[in-house]
Each structure stands twice: as structure tokens, then as C-alpha cells.
Amino acid sequence: MGENNNFLLGICGSPRNQGTQFAVEYALNYASEKFGFETEIWSVRGKKIGFCTHCDYCVREKKGCIQKDDVQELYPKIENAKFLLLGTPVFQGNLSAQLKAVMDRCRALVAKNPDVFRNKIGIALAVGGDRSGGQEPAIRTILDFYLQNGVITVSGGAFGANLGACLWTRDQGKDGVKKDEEGLRTIRKVIKRLTTFTNKSD
Ligand SMILES: Cc1cc2nc3c(=O)[nH]c(=O)nc-3n(C[C@H](O)[C@H](O)[C@H](O)COP(=O)(O)O)c2cc1C
Question: 93 in the Ramachandran plot: left (φ > 0), alpha (ψ -120 to 50) or beta?
Fold first, then answer.
């Protein structure tokens, strides 16, 4: 499957249908309605996601991951996407273990095709229960994943979304994100800035 130059894939790293899911959907809706991106969301919620066991099957065989779990359905979506949005709840001051497991499992994609992530464009979003609960470290981990794999990273820029979109739920999940107008603004800033890397800002 080839890369689709209009396709923004959102990956939600929350095990719940709460704040992070709402925030990723908000970003994708804004991107599709205002700027015409094709979008799709894939969530870790309810999925069977094995840890990478470093068996090195992927490195030896170059045929992807040997584990036939729900990450298999995600691989072609990643391959097909030009734009990636990784969104995570903040757990212990960083990203969720579920999203980290997905990142580790991407080693198999890269082993099969070292250029799989090259020139894709990535943005990040983090949702914490606290106002400053670790959103930026979580985003940095996502940005490091992009950096390590050749994804071009984009933030929302100065005045609010320096590294990416940061949201604060006050531990009220979806309702908290809906009330976090400043956080929602950071999502819009990130998506708007993303369009400057496409022809969609015209
Ligand atoms: C295991 C765990 C660890 C958490 N650690 C933090 C934290 O370090 N900082 C923070 O701001 N919120 C923390 N929270 C709260 C969640 O980030 C918050 O409830 C967020 O809204 C969860 O995302 P969701 O609404 O998508 O489920 C933690 C929650 C859990 C379950």
C-alpha cells in the first residue's frame, strides 16, 4: 500500500474513551473539516497489544512482527499515512505504557522498510489530570520517537503550543477536556501549523 499524501492518522494511547479520545477526535475533525485532510483514528482501547520481546524475528526476516495481535491492523494504516498524530494520556509523568508498546512494535515496520517513516510529518498531543502533570515530557517522548525514525516533527509554535498540544482534564476525563478551552486552542494551533507543511493553508 502506498503513502496517501492527504491522510492524517490519529493514534489514541488511552485505554479509556475519555479525554484523550475526545482530544484526538477534536484534532482530526478540525483537520478534516477546516483543511480537508482525510483522517482516521486508531485507539489502543480494548486492543490486544503485546510487548516487543526483542526476538529479532523482524530484523532477521524483514516481514514485520511475528506477534499476530491487534497491532497488525495498525501497521498498514501507519504505512499509508503521510501525517501522524500520536495522543497520550499522562501516566506517571509520561506517555501511557500502551502507546509505548505500540512504538516499540514499530521496530518491525522499520526492519521491513528502513524508510517507512521517512518524510512523514508528526504532531503530538498529551492529556493530563493536572495542569502541569507531565504533558511536555510525554510529548517529548513522542517527538523523540519521531526523531529516531525520521519523521519530521511539527509543533503548534510559540504562544501556547510550543512542543505540541497540552490538555488538562482536572481528572474529569472527556468533560474536563471539553472545558479546557486553552487546551483545545493548542490543538487548533498544532493543526494550523501542520497545514504550513502541506498546500492546505492556501
Ligand atoms: C496510572 C495513572 C497515572 C497517572 N499519572 C498522571 C500524571 O503523572 N500526571 C497527570 O497530570 N495525570 C496523571 N494521571 C491522570 C490522567 O492523566 C488523567 O485522568 C487523564 O485525563 C487520563 O486520560 P483519559 O481521560 O484519556 O483517560 C494518571 C492516571 C493514571 C491512571
Answer: left
CB neighbours (10 Å) of residue 55?
A: 11
**Domains recognised in the chain with CATH numbers:** 4-195 (3.40.50.360)
State if residue 87 touches ligand 1 by the CB under 6 angstroms criterion. no
Candidate from 22, 91, 187 with most ligand 1 atoms within 8 A of CB, to mutate: 91
Cβ pair 12, 24 in contact under 8 A? yes
Q: How confident is the model at residue 201 (pLDDT cuts 50, 70, 90)?
A: low
pTM for this predicted structure: 0.97
How remote is the CA of residue 186 from the centroid of ligand 1, in Å?
Answer: 19
Candidates 192, 3, 169; CA nearest to 80 is 3
Q: What is the pLDDT of residue 4?
A: 86
